[in-house]
Amino acid sequence: MQKKSEKIVNYYEMIGINPKASAGEIKRAYHDQLKIWHPDKNADRLAEAEETTKILNQAYSVLSDPEQRKQYDRMLRYTNGKDFGKILNEKAFWEKVEKASPILKQILKDLKDLYALFIESIKGRYKLHPTLTGIIGGGLLYFVVPLDLIPDYIPVIGLLDDFAVLSAIINSLQDELAEYRKFNREELS
């Protein structure tokens, strides 16, 4: 199971079907997996069974809806099964933020929430449209990868293009960030 990884959960593998499976095959495989992972049948590994059941429910929800499935398939092709923990190294990400000018750090709270939103979406704990997940991931990756328009070793200016990309994403996703913050407050209470 991939719950502790930052990989995109492959719903097809999770349910045990081919990506070209029909709606009927998806439904049968989903029910078969639920029978195996139902928490009542797994008292000895209850937490794992509950987490797996949640992911199975999410997988069925996405794969049984043609539009969501199409978007999910695009995201799966985009990520190509990559582990974002290796690509988007959290330590390197925050080290880069710390090097930023104090003026640029004004967007730090939004940036932290954007990063958390992305990670929670990748892990399947927060439902976000796959396109938005891809946009956020691309912006964060652009920020971390040294192959951007203006090299980061040029003081201040080297980070401006990175923050311009992230600021554009943050500004366009203010409603989603507000929903995510609300989701987090509800989770904590």
What does this structure look like?
Helix 2 packs antiparallel against helix 3. With 189 residues, the chain is mainly alpha-helical. Helix content is 67%, strand content 0%. The longest helix has 18 residues, at 46-63. The chain folds into two domains: 11-79, Orthogonal Bundle (Helix Hairpins), CATH 1.10.287.110; 84-188. The two termini are 28 Å apart. Residues 1-5 have low confidence and may be disordered. It has helices at 11-15, 23-37, 46-63, 66-79, 84-87, 90-99, 108-122, 130-144, 157-172, 174-188.
Provide a quick synopsis of the model:
The chain is an all-alpha fold.
Write the H/E string, N to C.
Answer: HHHHHHHHHH
* CA gyration radius, whole angstroms: 19 Å
The number of helical segments is: 10
Contiguous uncertain segments of 5+ residues: 1-5
Distance between the termini: 28 Å
Break the fold down into its secondary structure elements and pairings.
Blueprint: H1 11-15, H2 23-37, H3 46-63, H4 66-79, H5 84-87, H6 90-99, H7 108-122, H8 130-144, H9 157-172, H10 174-188
Helix pairs in contact: 2-3, 4-8, 7-8, 8-9
Keywords:
189 residues, mainly alpha, Helix Hairpins, 10 helices, disordered N terminus
